[in-house]
Specification:
- With 260 residues, the protein is of the alpha/beta class.
- It contains nine helices and eight strands.
- It has an eight-stranded mixed sheet, with helices on both faces.
- β5 (99-104), α4 and β6 (144-153) form a beta-alpha-beta unit.
Length: 260
């Protein structure tokens, strides 16, 4: 399966790639992924914006980057499809010469009590969050260059154990486990592997299905007494992707404003 791609670049496809660092960001069309695209582009990365279905949002992310003088390409790929993800990484190679950083922000959420769980929904969550992370991690392990970074996404709910979050939290617990193992499997290659585990963060995914009372209660939980923002999380991603963050490896970073 070949991905559907679109490209807008301040330098043109295949040009100016001698010294550019390249980031692949899945789930890059909205939310935390979209903010990570902008933040990494501001740091000089050429960015491959992976998206599942909303081409308009992905194109808007690319246009924001190129309007600021950066380089970006949008590529449609189902993260659980190994052929599509291989093609996503191949686009990074063909357009920009390789991959230095992978930010796997694509994910799926579903809230339900365990007693009332729709197993078909459970399968869908696990296909995206577990299989999808394995597929992306596999390509990252094969392609990321020396000195690079792989950043996956978990959730602080793994530790907080909120009711109704069983399907989502279980899938992200698997993400944490494979992230720490991958860090050890890449010994000797000078590649860091870490997971970022946000707390309640003001994204469309977070607000979906929640009333104002629930949102206010969650916002009051951190000692900082507010929801996180996608920009808060993107700063953590940028640090881990940078030389300054390269001594951090094999960690789960709970970026949640201090919720215990």
């Amino acid at each position: 399966m070949s991905p559907q791609t679109s490209l807008e670049s301040s330098t043109g496809a295949g040009q100016g790639t001698d010294h550019v660092r390249v980031a692949v960001v899945t789930g890059g069309s909205r939310g935390i992924g979209r903010e990570a695209v902008s933040r990494l582009a501001a740091d000089g990365f050429a960015v491959v914006v992976g998206f599942a279905g909303n081409r308009d949002l992905a194109e808007a992310a690319v246009k924001d980057v190129t309007a600021a003088g950066g380089r970006a390409v949008a590529v449609q790929a189902d993260v659980a499809d190994e052929h599509a993800v291989a093609a996503l990484f191949a686009t990074a190679e063909s357009e920009y010469g390789g991959v230095d950083v992978v930010v796997h922000a694509a994910g799926r959420a579903y809230l339900s009590s365990i007693a009332d769980l729709d197993l078909a929904e459970l399968d869908a969550v696990h296909r995206t969050n577990i299989r999808g992370t394995f597929v992306v991690a596999q390509q990252a392990a094969r392609t990321v260059r020396e000195g690079g970074a792989v950043i996956t996404f978990s959730t602080s709910v793994v530790g907080l154990a909120f009711p109704q979050y069983g399907p989502y939290s279980a899938s992200k617990g698997a993400v944490e486990a494979l992230t720490l193992i991958l860090a050890r499997e890449l010994r000797g290659r000078d590649i860091t592997v870490n997971a970022v585990a946000p707390g309640p963060t003001a994204t469309e995914l977070f607000f979906e299905g929640k009333d104002e009372e629930t949102i206010a209660r969650l916002a009051a939980q951190p000692p900082l007494e507010r929801l996180g923002t996608p920009a808060d999380i993107a700063e953590v991603v940028a640090f881990l992707a940078s030389p300054a963050g390269h001594w951090v490896n094999g960690q789960v970073i709970r970026a949640n404003g201090g919720i215990i």
